[in-house]
Amino acid sequence: MSIEVNGLHFSYGKGKKRLTILKDVTFSVGKGEFVGIIGNVGCGKTTLIKHLNGLLVPVTGNVTVDGLVSSKKEVCRKVGVLFQQPSKQLFCKTVFEDIAYGPSNFGMKGDELEYCVHDAIEKVGISSDILGSSPFSLSGGEMRLVALAGVLSSSPDYLVLDEPTSGLSTFYKERLFRTLELLRQNGVGIVLVSHHLEDVLGVADKIVYLNEGKMVFEGAPEEYLSSLSLPAPEITVLMRGLSSSGLAVRKTVFSVEDAFNEIVGALSEKRG
Amino acid sequence: MIELKDVSYSYPNGHNVLDNIDIRIEKGSFITILGDNGSGKSTLIRHINGLLKPSQGVVSVCGMDPASSTDIWKIRQTVGMVFQDPHSQAVGATVEEDVAFGPENLALESDEIRLRVTNAIANVGLECLEDSLLMSLSGGQLQKTAIAGVLAMVPEILIFDEVTSMLDSVSRSQIIDIVRQLNKRGHTVVYVTHHMEEALFADRVIVLENGSITSDGTPRDVFREIYASGRKVPPHLELAFRLQDAGMISPDVFPMDALSLKEEICPSR
């Protein structure tokens, strides 16, 4: 059971006006797997994830979800997508109605629907006190988590998030990642799109790096950090610099905790 | 030059967003206002150009009152604002048309408009894209166009509200470089962000929490205070503070980026 992307090509327009966005992209997302898709703005990340629930159809190649072609109606329920601007995903008068919109369209009602909405808001770590408020009266961080609750209320098997940390403060970012970790533990396959390397490297099982529509890397975070030709987090850049200056530290470290331990160890040894 | 005295602001539903804010900003300075989502940052700066009027207290900008209908037009020309989403500020079809929109509405002579547009576009480094359609630009290029549009009004004070939050790291550092250059050329800069690393370049950092000022000082002092309270600071700074506390590097060091920290730990030969 997985999302399979095979030889995906996508372009807008035809003939001389053709603008190619994605070129031969191949990767998979298993149940309970966390895949980070990274790359600069304009590299095709958002276009790529729109293929995962059938919003776009490949020009050549194919995308399947648990064996179903992604354009099949059933795929919409299997793959939930949280877009970059949550305000575009919220449209009801109250937070409750917004979160209930998906499951009620799938036929859920009454106590079951009530339970489903409360369960979704609890999963994202927001108080149910706001269920009666307008989603547009909330802060940017709360809006994003409410939009996520609206996606989770339909119990997707796969969750795709497009730049979910953009405009999000540290407080809401940590809350979001706690929610994602719980979902992953419950077997949800997660695809996180971001141009913030540190956000992805610490949580992903696999990294897909896109550059101008081409997949230039697919592999484990450790392998990504070993590659000198790919953009690196600032702590990794520091560790590479220290290593080049002769300090005996690992070059693939990207967290402050690991960097501190490495540097203290190396300096203590050097200074005797 | 900018003064907020005992300013509070509540929305009509009674929700209190700003609470007794006192700030004085000197001419030519570079102030960063740092705070989480919902801390009141955007509400605060909207008082400086009269987009919002305080529920209590007084705001003064170059001796004018932004809440006064007689001063408001002069204030809007003195204080230029750039917002988070560049699409929301785009009005023209091409870069040149978009940048010219403000000065054209001031009914200036065409030579003066041309001069202002050329200078503004040069200030953000978009000369080669002057005739490009806005719809063909990247997010970073569009944000530079929005900055140029504000610069064409020749404002003394520039306010930037989360202008990099939709941009990647390359575009972000280009925008920050432009903001620093504008400050060096004499503009007073008020820069709002929740990206802590962007606050390192300011003369002074003001931290807002739940509508109140919780820290106000140099980046060095404010970031030490934030770190000491157990909250997150930029990764290279957290590492520097931890190494200082462990006695591994000098306590006087305040590295602006990872490579400066590297030089402190292990200087290049």
Automatic annotation (TrEMBL), chain A:
GO terms for cellular component: ATP-binding cassette (ABC) transporter complex. One of its GO terms (molecular function) is ATP binding. Keywords: ATP-binding, Cell membrane, Hydrolase, Membrane, Nucleotide-binding, Transport. Its EC number is 3.6.3.-. The keyword ATP-binding applies. Probably part of an ABC transporter complex. Responsible for energy coupling to the transport system. PANTHER family: ENERGY-COUPLING FACTOR TRANSPORTER ATP-BINDING PROTEIN ECFA1 (PTHR43553:SF24), HEAVY METAL TRANSPORTER (PTHR43553). Belongs to the ABC transporter superfamily. This is Energy-coupling factor transport system ATP-binding protein.
From TrEMBL, chain B:
It is a peripheral membrane protein. Pfam families: ABC_tran (PF00005). SUPFAM superfamilies: P-loop containing nucleoside triphosphate hydrolases (SSF52540). Keywords: ATP-binding, Cell membrane, Hydrolase, Membrane, Nucleotide-binding, Translocase, Transport. The keyword Metal-binding does not apply. It is an enzyme of class 3 (hydrolase). Gene3D superfamilies: P-loop containing nucleotide triphosphate hydrolases. Its EC number is 3.6.3.-. It is found in: Cell membrane. GO terms for cellular component: ATP-binding cassette (ABC) transporter complex. The keyword Protease does not apply. Its main location: membrane. Residues 2-235 form the ABC transporter domain. Belongs to the ABC transporter superfamily. This is Energy-coupling factor transport system ATP-binding protein. It comes from Methanococcoides alaskense.
